[in-house]
Amino acid sequence: MAKRSKYDKYFSPGTHRSITAFSKHAAGGSKRRKSYTERRRNKIVGIVLACILGAAVVFTAAFFVTDTLLGISDANIETTQKAEKDNKGNKDKNNKGGKNDTTAPADNQQTSAEIKARVGNVSLLAGGSGLDQFVSSLKSAGQNAVVIDFKDASGYLSYPSSIAAVKDKAPSSKAQANAAASVKKIQQSGIKVVARIYCFKDTQMPRIDRTMAVHYNKTQMIWLDNEASKGGKPWLNPYSQTAQNYLLEVVKEVKNLGVDAILLDGVQFPDLNSNVATFDGEGSVSRNAALVKFVNSACSGTPVICAMKGEAAAGGSSDIYNGSLWSANASAFAVDLSSLKADAQRNFPASKKVIEMKSSASNTDSTYILTK
Fold it and tell me: Of 24, 107, 158, 286, which has the most beta carbons under 10 Å away?
């Protein structure tokens, strides 16, 4: 029999065993050693669990940090908004009524837009104590403006004019030397000055320059609106460019005196004895177009108010306006409403400013009130 090795007891057929220290059959061993595959699998599982646990920790920390930051941010925004609101409130409070405050009280806005005027005598332009008394009476009556004739219905000018055609002639014979100073004094008292200028209703210039006049029955004779024995008066011809130019020069001079507004009155064709009147130039444009053209030529710089008779303003008068003057570019229209029914006023254009004129037997008692 072959000699057996000392290791045969370990490697005898059917007895292949591990000799590692962890084998229970090895000397001193009690546990089986894990295989490479088991060890690798356990290592991967450990890594995965560690990653999951790490992610959970990071997510939790991020949540609390973010929540804290958002809380701080919201608190800052709220504090900033409150500070801005407080600053704005303080600024508005401190600036109220100051030079940067552009918001005026409603009552002041309404008052500044109103015109409550009384007609004053031309003698007011002479100044003196009479002017002071008149201004006081206006304020006592709650009125804030005065209407003064700077060219009256007879054609007389109440201020010194530099127009060559009237200088040292009849139209300038009633001029007040202190007109400019009186205008300034009235305004310094808080009263507005509305300068009324009668236009084609003029008895002086037709006699000085007949080319401006309305002529009689296609002749060069001066036409009168009534018989001479009955006080008939001549008129300026609205078609005459010379007449229009003269009136526009008057308007310009009066504006230069610093008045607050110009009131154009007598912008019309004659309403009496016109069947024998000849208007040189008629036919080139309509009568209405000639009048509107004149008003528009005067509308620059200082506000211009155009006067109209009530009946014509409500329905149009073919005799004196050949319609109405609503299409003119005037800032406002002074209309005598005293003879009209209440419903007639509804025919006025909604976009136009209307100044109600209340006539009286005494011209100086007439008033003008802005009603719209």
Answer: 158
Distance CA 171, CA 203 (A): 9
- Sequence-distant (6+) residues with CB within 8 A of 344 are 310, 314, 315
* Token representation of residue 281: 């130039």
DSSP 95-107: HTTSTT-----HH
Dist. CA 343–CA 341, nearest whole Å: 6
How far, in whole angstroms, is CA 354 from its chain's centroid? 18
The residue to which tokens 């016109």 are assigned: 274
Cα separation of the two ends of the chain: 145
pLDDT per residue over 27-54, tens digit each? Answer: 444 455 556 666 666 667 667 666 676 6
* Cα–Cα distance, 298 to 262 (Å, whole number): 9
**Phi, psi (rounded to 5 degrees) for 149:** -75, 115
∠ CA 169-212-214, nearest 5°, is 120
| Mutual angle of helices 179-188 and 129-140, in 10-degree steps | 30
Q: Any idea what the Cα angle at residue 316 is, between residues 313 and 320, rounded to 5°?
A: 95
> Given this model, what pLDDT does residue 179 score?
97
